Amino acid sequence: MQLRYRRFVPTEVDALVDFLTGETWPFHVQPVVDGDAVRRRASEGYYDNDEARTFWIVEGDDTVGLVRLMDLTDDTPLFDLRIRAAYRGRGIGGLAVVWLTGYVFDEFPHVHRIEGTTRRDNSAMRRVFPRCGYVKEAHYRDAWPGADGILHDSIGYAILRRDWVSGTVTVPDWHDEPTVG
């Protein structure tokens, strides 16, 4: 599979609206996206500014996904990844995470780590993170509101620059709690 990543430009707002409103995003806070909100955010620079960059994920002539990098002026940026339903389950998410990790660490030398979160029930993304060198660092109970009103656990993952450079994985010490009493 040959994927390309093409930076979003503001003149592509109609394509962005079509992409985001043409799918249901089951593991996002807003599974159904409002087109007017996308247009408003695009006009405000939400998708491309000093803090954020958005990239189309392209295979052949098809736009198969979207990556939005956020907090790029911080030492710990975040990302949002969306793969079209017809292309899910084909390994595109993992390839995109590998790409975005390399892109961020190469383009932003001040970045120390990259974080990502997902819902506990998003098993596909929870498999992608460790395969791409990310480590589970957090489990937030009832922290992610679902569109159905149900609160879901949120799981946090991150990769450190030093681990990415060395190809190793540094696992947190999960047994460092002080003794009670």
Per CATH, what is the topology? Aminopeptidase
| Mean pLDDT across every amino acid position | 95
The helix count comes to: 5
Following the backbone from N to C, one meets helices and strands in this order, namely EHHEEEHEHEEH
CATH-wise, what's the superfamily?
A: Gcn5-related N-acetyltransferase (GNAT)
Ranges with pLDDT <50 over ≥5 residues?
A: none
CATH class identity: Alpha Beta
- Label the CATH architecture: 3-Layer(aba) Sandwich
Protein traits:
protein N-terminal-serine acetyltransferase activity; alpha+beta; 181 residues; GNAT_dom; Aminopeptidase; 3-stranded antiparallel β-sheet; 30% strand; RimJ/RimL family protein N-acetyltransferase
Question: How is this structure best described in words?
Answer:
By secondary structure, the protein is α+β, with helices and mostly antiparallel strands. It has a single domain, classed as Aminopeptidase, CATH 3.40.630. It has five helices and seven strands; from the N terminus they run E-H-H-E-E-E-H-E-H-E-E-H. The protein has helices at 13-21, 35-43, 92-107, 123-131, 161-166, and strands at 3-7, 53-59, 62-70, 78-83, 113-119, 135-145, 151-160. The strands form two sheets. It has a four-stranded antiparallel beta sheet, with helices on one face. The N and C termini lie far apart (56 Å). This is RimJ/RimL family protein N-acetyltransferase. Residues 3-162 form the N-acetyltransferase domain. InterPro entries: Acyl_CoA_acyltransferase, GNAT_dom, Ribosomal_N-acetyltransferase. One of its GO terms (cellular component) is cytoplasm.
